[in-house]
């Protein structure tokens, strides 16, 4: 097993175990029977099928378009390689995420992620099975691996996943840090740099009028800086009381996973 795979599994297991001990991993408040089905199917589909396929396809397309450019970027400084990944993976994911919240038919692909009425490590990859297939950042990442960024990408994706898992988990690691006064300047910078539970939970809030929820913003995955840069940031250092989707009729697990192939009447 590759080191980055071990690291990714360790991150998931760490947060799963923390939730198991602190907040009951398998019995979340407001959980419904269909939630477990959506989470298991969407996560396994991504990990076993979609992500390997898209990365390989991006690699193949780059090799086809530029057959003599394999490892062309491998000599770049590490910081330059990280910068390229942040732009072509994380920034494009910010825009993909933002677009799916503002184009009605695309939101059907992302709605399963918000349909859960709780935060948890369980929902990190909870999306329609076509959501990641269309995500530009995964295709670009496959091409960048072909161009020589594979080793840096392996480290980058582990760190990115750590931030994303920490932002979704209901073990709110940032809450006690906000209460330490001398850490306030550090937290001011941190919450404007990466996604934290407070900023990402606001994106998952159910009621826009609660003063915290901001589901038309706080789109960042690894870097919250994109929200600051493009004017979609809301920082309150508080957490919404309710999680979920507002003013939408409930849909079945089949609709969540397979829309537009399967649609509820």
Structure description:
The chain has one domain. The relative contact order is 0.15. Helices cover 58% and strands 0% of the residues. It is mostly helical and 265 residues long. It has ten helices and no strands. It has helices at 3-22, 33-65, 78-100, 104-115, 136-168, 174-178, 184-190, 197-204, 225-230, 253-258. The longest helix has 33 residues, at 33-65.
Quick summary of this structure?
With 265 residues, the protein is mainly α.
Topology:
Layout: H1 3-22, H2 33-65, H3 78-100, H4 104-115, H5 136-168, H6 174-178, H7 184-190, H8 197-204, H9 225-230, H10 253-258
Keywords:
265 residues; mainly alpha; globular
Query: What is the quaternary state of this protein?
Result: single chain
Give the helix/strand class.
mainly alpha
Q: What composes the largest sheet?
A: none
* First-residue to last-residue Cα separation: 45 Å
Tell me the fraction of residues in β-strands, as a range.
under 5%
Q: SSE order in H/E notation? A: HHHHHHHHHH
Task: Let me know the number of strands.
Answer: 0
Determine Rg (CA atoms, Å): 19 Å
